[in-house]
Specification:
By secondary structure, this protein is an all-alpha fold.
């Protein structure tokens, strides 16, 4: 029972991390220190996606699932849980590059907008 609960906890942390990588710049609008946490997460997420590597949380979750008596799964977290939602059929390295680029663009736009807003606030506009 403990291992199944722990595996589910890792799954939730993994999902929250992905959401944080994609949308964490929104938190930087509220907390000035957030980019110090968020930007390294973005670099990690983009690098992992662009290179096709598997996040270290995936083997941790699989190990816990096996310890709980489950089978675990092959491949990465996203392919197993979110493929049908996020990725189109026939995931290729090219699609992964596009997805990594999309994450990067979302964050560049969000931080660019944040920078402009802070500059306007400083000038009193």
């Amino acid at each position: 029972m403990f291992y199944r609960f722990a595996a589910d906890a890792v799954l939730i942390v993994h999902l929250l991390f992905i959401v944080f990588v994609v949308l964490g710049a929104l938190l930087a609008w509220r907390w000035r220190w957030m980019p110090w946490l968020h930007l390294p997460a973005v670099v990690w997420g983009v690098w992992t996606e662009a290179t096709g590597n598997i996040c270290p949380l995936t083997p941790v979750e699989n190990g816990l699932r096996r310890a709980a008596g489950d089978a675990g799964y092959m491949g990465g977290f996203i392919e197993h849980y979110l493929l049908a939602i996020i990725y189109p059929a026939g995931l290729t390295p090219t699609i992964q590059w596009w997805l990594a680029g999309l994450v990067l663009v979302i964050n560049v736009v969000a931080y660019g907008w944040l920078y402009i807003l802070r500059q306007r606030r400083r000038r009193g506009e």
